[in-house]
Amino acid sequence: MLRILSTTFFLLITILGMANQSKIDSLINADDSLKITNNSRERFLVHSQLAKQYKAIHDTDRYIGSILTMANMSRASGSHLISLNILQELENSIYTLTPKEVIQVCLIKGSTLYEIDDKDSAIYWAHSGLLLSKKFGIQKFAPLLNNLLGASFMFTKPDSAISYIETSIAGFLSVNDSNGVVLPYLNLALLYGNQNRYSKAIETIANSLVILDQEDVPIYRKMAYANLAMIYRDIEDYKNSTLFLNLRDSVNYEINNNQLIFQFSQFQDRLEDEKNTRELMKLKAKVEIAEVENRNQDILITLGLVLLVALGMSLFFAIKSSRDRKKMTQIMHNKAQELEQINRFKNQILSVISHDMRSPLAQVITFQHAKNSGINFSPDEIREMDKTIMASAKNGLLILDNLLKWANNQFSSEELKLETFDSYFVITQIIQQVDELANEKDIVIHSDVTTLDLFTNESLYQIILRNLLSNAIKFSPMNSEIRVNARLEENNFIITVTDQGPGIPKRILDALDKGDRIKPKTGSYGEKGAGIGLTFSKEFAQRIGATLTFNTEILVGTEATFTLPIAKEAPQE
Q: Which CATH superfamily does the domain covering 340-565 fall into?
């Protein structure tokens, strides 16, 4: 029976391996579809999943390729600091980049700096990329780099800009890259329009539309129609201007519709993954049960043999030896339990400190990287960054102080320390501590908090709320909202934290109820975690007599409810 179950188990592992490859293929197909609509944010999520898959199977080249795509998609979606930070982390990582990958870094960094209006830096990186392309004979990215140079010189050196973009067009046409040549055509048309060479601009856009009729890219078609609408407006042909504005809006509707279709496909894939995971866990449990049964049989046989041999020994010696052995075993067992408890508590303290300190330290590192990235920030922007770095450092120090007080309290033999504090002040303070993380994802935190004096352990109370807010930010999408509500209902102080994230999978809620270790899960934009926040939050809630529950729905969001009973009368000093 065990052999059959083991064989079946390994067969299922093989099937799941094939399923993982199928998932990679599915993600690649989704990425190909998203290239057409140029949906940058969805492509970022797809490549975030692909990067995890490639890293798991040690496919370094494809892993780096997905990381570069994530940086480019962050740039395309307007998250320029995130893009620069991703590139900086890749350059500082253990991976050695190939010349081709270094050229890609030059292209993405130059494009990012161009979009934040640092044209001089964009020109520097584009030139660097072209020099490397020439040195190593890698011409794949040369047309894109020439187009970037042309766009950077568009308003300062129009003639040079036209020369670079014409070189870019020639490069794309030489390798029959009809999709790639469309953007330089549109940039060239914009240059002609700026010089009032309207006939030449219309002719150039017509060239791009001929290509788009064969291989349609809706985002490029939208740009072409918008450009034509502006040209006809400038020459006071309002009939044609209105026509192309309507065509632009029609293409925009198509782009939005494709995004909805892809999101539904992602939802189906997620449901299938959860089904496979459940089946694997059931079969693994059956194998473990069979192994335990066989092990028990072996133990019984061994004990029988030992008893037969022991019959030849004297009864007195057997009794004395048994007593001494039991006494020594009990002493060792007690010591082992004591050491295990101390070691478990040490690990718990280290885990809590590392978990809660990650956010303020990440903020300091992110803004310091931004300051050292070579971007020419204004003095006001530098001052704002310095203020943010200082605030993050102070928040980190405050969090560390609270955690050390809590740790010291745990080592003490005294009972859990209870104290009176203002609920409104503490919740507001914690929101301020995580606000910078929310700002990086354009997340707005709304709070509606009742002022009330609470009597409980303040350190554990803060850790629970900070973890709930950090989790909500981590799994919330860009441009979303988080709501914090705190109210008094009868003899309970109830705090709810509501987000618009993907929801908590049932397997995680089940593991949380059983007290099992939760496998770390990556956030909506690749944020890393330790997989301990919810586990400790629930444990700490129980220690102060509170409860922690979750109302969650896939793709809709999660409402975490922290219910703290309060004393009917205020504590006496």
A: Histidine kinase-like ATPase, C-terminal domain (3.30.565.10)
